[in-house]
Model the fold of this input.
Amino acid sequence: MLRRKVLPQIEEWHQGGCRKDDKNSKQELDFIIEEQNKITVIEVKSGEKYKKHASLDAAVKDYTDKIHRSIVLSRYNVGRKDDVLYLPLYMTIFI
Done:
């Protein structure tokens, strides 16, 4: 059910690199995972500005009711801010 209803919309957003209200936007998501009839969006960050994630924020804003979890992977420690879970890269195995 999810694959037919939610994923095509998210995949269109993801592949097009666009927010649905701004067709000129070049935002993208690194990974989309199906989980509990919703999706988990994952961003991988390499720099010190790992808490800045416009693409992830835009996806959550556009598809709040369809997103189960939002995760940012980086070299930094575990944390949570708002609805975003921050995990160090070595914890990827536990997602």
Notes: The radius of gyration is 13 Å. The longest helix spans residues 7-16. Strands lie at 31-35, 38-44, 67-74, 79-81, 84-88.
